[in-house]
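User: Um, any thoughts?
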Amino acid sequence: MKNNEFRKTLKDLNLLLFKVVNKRHKELGIDLTPIQSTIILTIYENQETLCQKHLEQFVSCNKSTLSSILDTMEKKNLIKRVSDCADTRKKVIVLTKSAKSFIEKIKEDKTMVENEMLQGIEKEELKLFTATLNKMLKNLERM
């Protein structure tokens, strides 16, 4: 497989996954973009408070893009930015009741999409593929 074919396949996989999740959200009545649902789950899985800098590491987007997404989420009453108790200069992102109401649906949908996506793939194949992708990530992190 040529490098450009590999890159195209990864890009296509990411794009199609985004489209499928977006479609599923609409079908389930979840009024969130895939990145918004990812942010909600990430905050939820991290004891429901996370500072923006740490969130950047989980969602793989730059500071200004994440800030814009969080602004939109705050306007939709999904999150609040509050001062950290330990360091008042630092803002933490907290989920609102509105965001928490989506968590179970998002988790169920995520599981269903992952199960469908991995259908027909053996555990060993997935383990090897994941290990290979992690090596690629480490290689890029060194750059």
